[in-house]
Amino acid sequence: MENTAKILNQKNLKATPQRIAIYEYLLGTGDHPTAETIYAALKPAHPNLSLATVYKNVASLKDAGLLMEFSLGGEGCRYDARTYEHAHVVCRKCHKVFDIDLPADTAEHKKTVSLMTNMDIDTCMMYYYGVCEDCWNK
Amino acid sequence: MENTAKILNQKNLKATPQRIAIYEYLLGTGDHPTAETIYAALKPAHPNLSLATVYKNVASLKDAGLLMEFSLGGEGCRYDARTYEHAHVVCRKCHKVFDIDLPADTAEHKKTVSLMTNMDIDTCMMYYYGVCEDCWNK
DNA sequence: TACAAGATAGTAATTTTTTTCATTTTCATT
DNA sequence: AATGAAAATGAAAAAAATTACTATCTTGTA
């Protein structure tokens, strides 16, 4: 059985071609696409994919913990399926998002936060905000 | 001159009653309200406030760096004007958001990230994801 | 292979956010 | 205090994003 399908099944999600395509697309891209972008990217190879299916799938994948949703500017929510923890650097002006390695180990932090909140904290996301070089020069 | 008005003027924003009200509301609340929630909260005291004005103001305040925008579930963007850095703890299931103190000092991290990216990083936001006690017990 | 649960496309409906624009307000300068 | 340019406002309309619905398929299991 193909690997992606197996992962989905382990999460009690059926491995439909659409879901596999959406998940693999997100795993493969370094961008942080919106639902619309995902749809546009996959439509050629999946001609009868519908936007509603994209939304339903990012929701189910998010609930399963396979991707993160976040929002920064006025372009709808963005999705990110990178499994390793990393930080996002966001330009306040143009809303570009870069990935960088975490500048610190978060394992200890997660333990601390778990104790503080009585929750089982599994993920830490860090966002750094500033103005990028391009926008400075304008 | 009143303090909030002064802050706004320093950011080249005109200190209109609506803008002052929105900003002070966000400074004062521990919640992470959506535009709609802000509107509903201020409408009684500002009867002819319009939702469009709320949107325009959170945008201008965000561009000025006076507040942060983020999104978690399917209820529109949330806004947070807390000036001190803090972390958000998010329940994956019910989307509740708690504020906690930062579990680590981020000054060093920001310097590191500034160097890595050639940006002037001024803010770090941390999000911890997990499942809260209430949702565990369901 | 058949079956039940789950997923899909397509569309409609809803919700959220942005734009438009005529009018009003702010604020630095007289 | 009056002036005027730039910015902000409210109301309505428009656009964009998201969800709901339904009849029809598919998946994964037995």
Task: Give the SSE map.
The structure is a homodimer of 138-residue chains.
Chain A: H1 3-10, H2 17-28, H3 35-42, H4 51-63, E1 68-70, E2 78-80, E3 87-91, E4 97-100, H5 107-117, E5 120-131, H6 133-136
Chain B binds a DNA duplex (30 and 30 nucleotides) through helix 2 and helix 4.
List keywords for this structure.
DNA-binding; three-stranded mixed beta sheet; flat; 138 residues; Arc Repressor Mutant, subunit A; Dna Ligase, domain 1; two-stranded antiparallel sheet; alpha+beta; homodimer
Outline the structure in words.
The structure is a homodimer of 138-residue chains. Chain A folds into two domains: 2-80, Arc Repressor Mutant, subunit A (Orthogonal Bundle), CATH 1.10.10.10; 86-136, Dna Ligase, domain 1, CATH 3.30.1490. In chain A, the strands form two sheets. Chain A has a three-stranded mixed β-sheet with strand order 4-3-5. A two-stranded antiparallel sheet of chain A has the order 1-2. The longest helix of chain A is centred in the middle third of the chain and has 13 residues, at 51-63. In chain A, 41% of the residues lie in helices and 20% in strands. Chain A contains six helices and five strands. Chain A has helices at 3-10, 17-28, 35-42, 51-63, 107-117, 133-136, and strands at 68-70, 78-80, 87-91, 97-100, 120-131. In chain A, β1 and β2 (78-80) form a beta hairpin. In chain A, α3 packs across α4. Chain A starts with a helix and ends with a helix. With 138 residues, chain A is an alpha+beta fold. β5 of chain A pairs antiparallel with β5 of chain B.
